[in-house]
From TrEMBL:
This is CRAL-TRIO domain-containing protein. It comes from Photinus pyralis. Residues 1-22 form the signal peptide. InterPro entries: CRAL-TRIO_dom (IPR001251), CRAL-TRIO_dom_sf (IPR036865), CRAL/TRIO_N_dom_sf (IPR036273). Keywords: Signal. It holds the Pfam family CRAL_TRIO. The lineage of its organism: Eukaryota, Metazoa, Ecdysozoa, Arthropoda, Hexapoda. GO terms for cellular component: membrane. Residues 168-263 form the CRAL-TRIO domain. GO terms for molecular function: phosphatidylinositol bisphosphate binding. It comes from the Eukaryota. PROSITE patterns: CRAL_TRIO.
Amino acid sequence: MGAKLAFFFTMSKIVVLEVVEGWRPKVLELYGRTEEAARIDVEKVKEWFRKQPHLPELPVDELIERFLITNKFHVEAVKSKLDVYFSVRTLLPEFYGHDPCGERVRSVTQTVYLVPLPKPTAAFSRIICFKLKDANVEKFDVIDTLGYLMNIIEVRLREDFCLSDIYIYDLQGTTIGHVLKISPTILKKMNYLMEKLYKISIEGIHIINAPTFIESAVAMFSKYFKEKIMSRVQTHQNLESLHEAVPKCYLPSDLGGTQKSLLEYQEIWKMKLIQLKPLLEHLQALRVNEELRPVKLPENEFLGINGNFRQLDVD
């Protein structure tokens, strides 16, 4: 399957993510780019990509532009992130290749709601809701949940054009046992993926129905995420407080909003991902040829020497 055909699979009839009308000229203006300048930036990335013998497939223009938008049209940053985008499936295999029709994904959707809501805010933010569906701690698998999230991100990379995320965590039923399943190693890896690869800007993190140990949990997470991110965490005592931060017109009925329920949205997402199974399988089959890599991945505080994630065990 070529790149163009791979992109076709993302443009399915099942719409899970709406976009703000007239978003494109507004975003280009925000970053000081014209249509022509944006086209040239895409071509610069493609020209560089063609000279990288280790990379498996030339990305389609739409995917390159998505990376350009999330990186504020910094071309050199996009080159680096696209390299990691193709490399990370080998470096972090536990997070990738989760079959949307398989038992692991089915178990996730029976245990949690992890749902990007369809309606974006006027400020180009996407709202993502997390809530336990089954509070049995034995059924909560962090790796499988994050693997499900990676599938969702593949859709967002191709069909979402929001500039930032708003996370809402309804922690009803959450126990200390759930939190203890999120190991420091997992936190480090997810921080890397969200901040360094996918470059997700976080507008806000909202917590509702917080358990008594929430302050201790937030303190634990703060060791692994930037202070700027942690400063955007808000704990709400009730739905009225949440609605002051995130209007009801964007929220599901589960959170006192005017939109559909999380269950309804989850079912739509399940159908979407099943429809895109050929794309996900295609991406999983792509592998970087490290023997042909002209320049090794840079060393950093988490990747280790030459990006060797495999030196880190999953706790």
